[in-house]
């Protein structure tokens, strides 16, 4: 999950503190194995701030506690968020790489996202065709190696097919969003 996309998406809905984002991310990550530390959150806030994508809105100081800084998104940040979401789809590596973008589909042109998903599906189908053409028995190897190669081939095939099935569902979802608008 791209933490920066998630941070920018959250700030595009309203100003908040890094700790608030940490709680939001925690809710979304309860279903995954990903662990996001407070240090990671604060580091990414600092990176986004240095890039001019977010700005400090207010800092509250109290005697017994660390300063608490509220952030907001800049116009440059809104543009970067949209661009980052499109890039995640353009540079698809696996389904999990899309998670942060999925919770921000309301911030982009869903028709464009649909085209990008269709392109991903075509590329995934091309991978399936390539795998189907590969025959491990064409190499000279012992039985254990042949078994391993067939198992790896099967795993790759099943994973890609699973991705295609899920991407088809996502495409349907995105297309239904386009029809609503």
From TrEMBL:
PANTHER family: PADR-FAMILY TRANSCRIPTIONAL REGULATOR, TRANSCRIPTIONAL REGULATOR RV3488
Protein name: PadR family transcriptional regulator
Spans through the membrane: none
Organism: Paenibacillus xylanilyticus
Gene3D superfamilies: Winged helix-like DNA-binding domain superfamily/Winged helix DNA-binding domain (1.10.10.10)
Boundaries of every Transcription regulator PadR N-terminal domain copy: 7-82
């Amino acid at each position: 999950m791209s933490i920066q996309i998630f941070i920018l998406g959250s700030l595009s809905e309203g100003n908040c503190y890094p700790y608030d984002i940490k709680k939001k991310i925690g809710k979304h990550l309860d279903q995954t194995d990903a662990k996001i530390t407070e240090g990671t959150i604060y580091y990414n806030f600092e990176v986004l701030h240095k890039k001019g994508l977010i700005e400090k809105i207010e800092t509250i100081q109290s005697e017994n506690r660390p300063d608490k800084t509220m952030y907001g998104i800049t116009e440059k940040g809104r543009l970067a968020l949209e661009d980052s979401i499109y890039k995640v789809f353009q540079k698809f590596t696996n389904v999990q790489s899309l998670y942060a973008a999925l919770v921000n589909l309301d911030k982009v042109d869903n028709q464009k996202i649909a085209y990008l998903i269709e392109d991903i599906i075509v590329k995934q189908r091309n991978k399936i065709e390539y795998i189907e053409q590969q025959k491990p028995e064409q190499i000279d190897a012992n039985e254990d190696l042949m078994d391993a190669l067939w198992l790896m081939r099967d795993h790759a095939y099943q994973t890609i097919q699973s991705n295609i099935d899920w991407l088809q569902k996502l495409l349907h979802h995105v297309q239904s969003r386009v029809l609503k608008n």
